[in-house]
Amino acid sequence: MNALLSPLGILFPEALVRSHPFAILAAFVAINTVIYVALTVAKAMPKIYFGDYLPRNYARAETRSIYPDAPS
Questions:
Q1: If pLDDT is split at 50, 70 and 90, which confidence band does 5 have?
Q2: Which contacts qualify for 2-9: CB closer than 8 Å, 24 or more apart?
Q3: Phi, psi of 60 (to 5 degrees)
Q4: For 62, phi and psi rounded to 5 degrees?
Q5: Can you list the alpha helix ranges (DSSP code H) found in the chain?
Q6: How far, in Å, CA of 6 to CA of 21, rounded?
Q7: For a tag on the chain, would you pick the N or C end, based on fewer CB atoms within 10 A?
Q8: What confidence tens digit (pLDDT) does each residue in 8-21 have?
């Protein structure tokens, strides 16, 4: 049984596995897998709001409080 499997690939013939179209397909699958894993990890991480880390440069000219002497 082992003598029958040695000249062949595990699932496909060796000529198919070493062909150029098969290499292109394998590269596409590898890149697709890496992108899918990166998107999955990014979705699992907590959201980052960059506005929380930037200084705020805006302030109201007048207070909107019902108390006129409230700090603005």
A1: low
A2: none
A3: -75, 145
A4: -130, 155
A5: 2-5, 14-17, 20-44
A6: 23
A7: N
A8: 556 888 888 899 99
Euclidean distance between CA atoms 3 and 10, whole angstroms: 13
Q: Do 63 and 71 form a contact (C-beta atoms < 8 A)?
A: yes
Task: Yes or no: say if 22 and 16 are a contact pair by the CB < 8 Å rule.
Answer: yes
Q: Nearest 5 degrees, angle CA 54-CA 59-CA 60?
A: 155
Yes or no: say if 46 and 52 are a contact pair by the CB < 8 Å rule: no
d(C-alpha 32, C-alpha 38), whole Å: 10
Predicted TM-score of the model (pTM): 0.54
